């Protein structure tokens, strides 16, 4: 069994006790310590800036042309905090409860409580950094509600909350760059991890402009590389989002937890063609005022406005009367899939449902609706050419957030000493399903508040070990391995493009390892993915050279890792013979079609060891001392 | 749907560039413009040619990484849109589509349609932040900000840093970008402490990076995908003069 290193004391005191017990490093010694941070999103930029303010020397890496592009930028809806500004009964405890329940009791109590506990000071932090959150006329902050929750605790900046938080973190990062405590490496992609004496001591990165492989050494390495839902190819993620850094470290010994827990977002725009590269998300906040429906009649080809009220099926309101359109994401996605698969889907490809604002406009007036969601309606029109004030939006589920990720303990350290994972790339707080507006929260808290405190326990002992240089033979060895991997890929010189293989992989993953899974499908998927992997290494064609900017090569390198990760995701989904949160196994459901959890046999975190491709399962037992696992009902 | 793309190709910053013509078939109106370029790149790979380098990441109009001139207009034929939001339905079947990189002395070309916009980051580095350390914040509602002030700050803060304003300006001025960040922060009580220093340092860095001067033609405002107003530039100039007097 894995030890998550949970601190002593009752739940409410654990974080304080941890801080009391942990080691400190004096400012003169901090100056001697170097930290690598891979990723510049909310987690990475927040951690880099804060560690630099504390006095450490930070090297921060991102593959984009600027730290401001990281995909945190795209989160629209908001960020949760237990401030209870709306006087509606919210509290740290209530938020802890909602998050643990939302995650279907597959996350760690102590971590989830800490997330709720640190949420309120995080809002203070972002306000201080100049984030223009929405305000009431009197000047105080506004809140709205989000899926899976009955209080209003979400703070937002129009539909661009992620952008505004990221820009605050990015500005703070550049402030510390100017102070010469952060060195930034943009257009650099981490290729592998370097271990010395079993500890993470550096990385090999590829300069994406020159193709040159470079060595970087440090006392600790922090991964903040985001989610991996691009394994489905079509997802709400940025095109460059990838699993390479976490996958390469997994192969070097870091355990991968709950890899198959993937959130399928209920409100994305439907796919319209085979060439599509991306599914655009429409913020879940739209479900606050929009109503979701499909026609009651199959294959109803009438225009939506021609279908009278009594012939519309508001299926979320029907199935989940107390939460209605605000049912959690996994529940809402599955309900949409059920309707679409049963032949009630709408749109040209019959792969969508309606999200209707007619009643909201009647109730609130056009101006209020425009105030709340104007930019989302604009975005919808840009992409589809349709004015959603006049007719309902068409939406469809899409692969979104990875709850799974590298296994980390309470300190956010992986199973490799000195290697940390923060933000979406770890598995820590969301269990089997993430609640809306908890993602910006987790990324920020990991980066700003938790890691800068927990890294001391490890670094305090590094001072005695002395520094390393990139001349160490471990760097030489790993660099040659990376070089050979790239050469091998360029030498295949087959006949098929990288995107061809990615599309094939995506189709299988979407069919077998997304909203609904079963033993037969997953077993078949493993065979199919192995075959794709085989033909990828025999038939892929990548033009251009290694020693130049080569976007095709970047894609190929990322896909090579996705192909391996996909196998682990299917293996994980196959092993877990229960349904929980986003992991819905068709064999395990109630008569009403709801998820059937099995706490007797599966109340553990699955942490996989790579073991040369023969994935080996380790378990971290989940105990619930403060909250009795209940059946997650939103009826 | 068919189209002929006329695309700027350039091996590297020092190499000589040229336009090349590509006839592309098999497009659909639902494809985004960047998906059409993906489609072309797949064909180039099949023909054993090097792919066209172009930038993108989120493909939903918010990260700011994409951006090219399409038929002589930054981010293509539609108002208030980024390149990734342009769809092929914006073009006629068989149309000639000319694609060029941003052109500005402060944005050197890296390859094909990819330029180096790090000068914009360096402007932010010189004061585009509030100097407060993590852990020092007062209670959020202790700072009251009237809705109209907050809204105005948000209007300016919406900038995505794509560089279309610079690329569209005949002087390649970064005044719209710089003023948007200055006004976002200087309009908020949290940003007031450093307001004068901020406007002086950021505008100075803008000049050091080799961006041209603003002559108020308004071209930037027209091309800005976020609709950021040139009133920001006027406010920046006024506060800069004031800050210089006080200096």
Defining key terms:
heterodimer; A: 635 residues; alpha/beta; Flavocytochrome C3, Chain A, domain 1; Methane Monooxygenase Hydroxylase, Chain G, domain 1; five-stranded parallel beta sheet; 20 strands; B: 247 residues; alpha+beta; Ubiquitin-like (UB roll); two-stranded antiparallel ribbon; elongated
Describe the structure.
The complex is a heterodimer of chains A (635) and B (247). Chain A has 635 residues and is of the alpha/beta class. Among the domains of chain A are: 134 residues, Flavocytochrome C3, Chain A, domain 1 (Alpha-Beta Complex), CATH 3.90.700.10; 129 residues, Methane Monooxygenase Hydroxylase, Chain G, domain 1. Chain A is built from 17 helices and 20 strands. In chain A, the strands form five sheets. Chain A has a five-stranded parallel sheet. In chain A, strands 18-16-10-19-20 form a five-stranded mixed sheet. Chain A has a five-stranded antiparallel sheet with strand order 11-15-14-12-13. The radius of gyration of chain A is 24 Å and the shape is globular. The two termini of chain A are 36 Å apart. The mean pLDDT of chain A is 95. By secondary structure, chain B is α+β, with helices and mostly antiparallel strands. Chain B folds into two domains: 109 residues, Ubiquitin-like (UB roll) (Roll); 129 residues, Alpha-helical ferredoxin (Fumarate Reductase Iron-sulfur Protein, Chain B, domain 2), CATH 1.10.1060. In chain B, 34% of the residues lie in helices and 12% in strands. Chain B has eight helices and seven strands; from the N terminus they run ββαβββββααααααα. Chain B has a five-stranded mixed sheet with strand order 2-1-5-3-4. Chain B is elongated and about 60 Å long. Chain B starts with a strand and ends with a helix.
């Amino acid at each position: 069994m894995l030890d998550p290193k949970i601190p002593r004391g009752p739940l409410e005191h654990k974080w304080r006790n941890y801080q009391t017990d942990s080691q400190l490093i004096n400012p003169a010694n901090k100056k001697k310590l170097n930290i690598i941070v891979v990723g510049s999103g909310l987690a990475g930029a927040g951690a880099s800036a804060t560690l630099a303010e504390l006095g450490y020397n930070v090297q921060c890496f991102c593959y984009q042309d600027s730290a401001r592009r990281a995909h945190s930028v795209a989160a629209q809806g908001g960020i949760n905090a237990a401030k209870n500004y709306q006087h509606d009964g919210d509290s740290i405890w209530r938020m802890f409860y909602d998050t643990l329940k939302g995650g279907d009791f597959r996350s760690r109590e102590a971590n989830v409580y800490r997330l709720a506990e640190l949420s309120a000071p995080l809002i203070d932090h972002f306000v201080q950094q100049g984030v223009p959150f929405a305000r009431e006329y009197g000047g105080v902050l506004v809140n709205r509600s989000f899926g899976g929750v009955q209080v209003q605790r979400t703070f937002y900046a129009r539909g661009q909350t992620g952008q505004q938080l990221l820009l605050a973190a990015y500005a703070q990062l550049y402030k510390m760059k100017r102070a010469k405590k952060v060195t930034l490496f943009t257009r650099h992609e981490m290729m592998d991890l370097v271990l010395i004496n079993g500890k993470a001591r550096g990385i090999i990165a590829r300069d994406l402009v020159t193709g040159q492989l470079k060595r970087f050494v440090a006392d600790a390495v922090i991964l903040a590389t985001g989610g991996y839902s691009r394994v489905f190819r079509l997802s709400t993620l940025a095109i460059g989002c990838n699993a390479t850094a976490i996958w390469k470290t997994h192969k070097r010994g870091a355990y991968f937890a709950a890899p198959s827990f993937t959130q399928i977002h209920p409100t994305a725009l439907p796919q319209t063609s085979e060439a599509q590269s991306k599914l655009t998300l429409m913020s879940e906040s739209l479900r606050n005022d929009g109503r979701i429906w499909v026609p009651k009649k199959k294959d109803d080809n009438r225009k939506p406005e021609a279908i009278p009220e009594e012939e519309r099926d508001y299926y979320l309101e029907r199935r989940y009367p107390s939460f209605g359109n605000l049912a959690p994401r996994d529940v809402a996605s599955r309900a949409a899939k059920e309707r679409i698969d049963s032949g009630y889907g709408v749109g040209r490809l019959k792969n969508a449902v309606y999200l209707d604002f007619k009643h909201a406009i009647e109730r609130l007036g056009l101006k209020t609706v425009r105030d709340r969601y104007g930019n989302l309606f604009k975005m919808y029109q840009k992409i589809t050419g349709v004015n959603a004030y006049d007719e309902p939006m068409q939406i469809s589920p899409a692969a979104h957030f990875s709850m799974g990720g590298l296994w980390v303990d309470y300190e956010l350290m992986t199973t490799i000493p000195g290697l940390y994972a923060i933000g979406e790339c770890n598995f820590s707080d969301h269990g089997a399903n993430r609640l809306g507006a908890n993602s910006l929260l987790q990324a920020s808290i990991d980066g700003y508040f938790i890691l800068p405190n927990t890294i001391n326990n490890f670094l305090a002992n590094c001072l005695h070990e002395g520094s390393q240089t990139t001349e160490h033979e471990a760097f030489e060895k790993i660099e040659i391995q990376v070089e050979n991997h790239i050469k091998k890929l360029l030498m295949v010189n087959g006949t098929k493009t990288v995107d061809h293989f990615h599309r094939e992989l995506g189709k299988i993953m979407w069919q077998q390892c997304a909203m609904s899974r079963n033993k037969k499908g997953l077993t078949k998927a493993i065979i199919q993915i192995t075959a794709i992997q085989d033909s990828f290494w025999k038939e892929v064609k990548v033009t251009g050279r290694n020693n130049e900017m080569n976007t095709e090569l970047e894609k190929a390198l990322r896909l090579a890792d996705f192909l391996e990760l996909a196998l682990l995701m299917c293996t994980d989904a196959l092993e877990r013979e229960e349904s929980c949160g986003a992991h819905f196994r068709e064999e395990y459901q109630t008569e009403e079609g709801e998820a059937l959890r099995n706490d007797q046999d599966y109340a553990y975190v699955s942490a996989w060891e790579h073991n040369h491709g023969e994935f080996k399962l380790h378990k971290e037992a989940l105990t619930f001392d403060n909250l009795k696992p209940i059946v997650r009902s939103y009826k | 749907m068919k189209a002929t793309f006329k695309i700027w190709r350039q091996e590297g910053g020092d190499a000589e560039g040229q336009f090349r013509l590509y006839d592309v078939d098999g497009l659909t109106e639902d494809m985004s413009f960047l998906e059409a370029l993906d489609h072309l790149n797949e064909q180039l790979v099949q023909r054993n040619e090097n792919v066209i380098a172009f930038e993108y990441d989120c493909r939903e109009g918010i990260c700011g990484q994409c951006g090219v001139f399409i038929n002589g207009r930054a981010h293509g034929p539609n108002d208030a849109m980024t390149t990734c939001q342009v769809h092929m339905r914006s073009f006629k079947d068989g149309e000639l589509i000319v694609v060029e990189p941003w052109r500005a002395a402060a944005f050197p070309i890296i390859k094909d349609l990819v330029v180096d916009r790090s000068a914009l980051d360096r402007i932010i580095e010189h004061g585009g932040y509030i100097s407060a350390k993590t852990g020092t914040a007062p209670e959020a509602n202790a700072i009251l900000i009237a809705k109209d002030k907050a809204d105005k700050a948000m209007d300016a803060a919406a900038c995505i840093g794509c560089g279309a304003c610079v690329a569209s300006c005949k002087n390649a001025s970064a005044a719209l970008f710089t003023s948007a960040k200055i006004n976002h922060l200087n309009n908020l009580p949290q940003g007031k402490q450093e307001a004068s220093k901020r406007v002086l340092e950021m505008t100075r860095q803008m000049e050091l990076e080799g961006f041209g001067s603003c002559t108020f033609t308004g071209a930037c405002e027209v091309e800005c995908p976020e609709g950021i107003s040139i009133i920001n530039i006027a406010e920046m100039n006024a506060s800069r003069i004031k800050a210089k007097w006080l200096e």
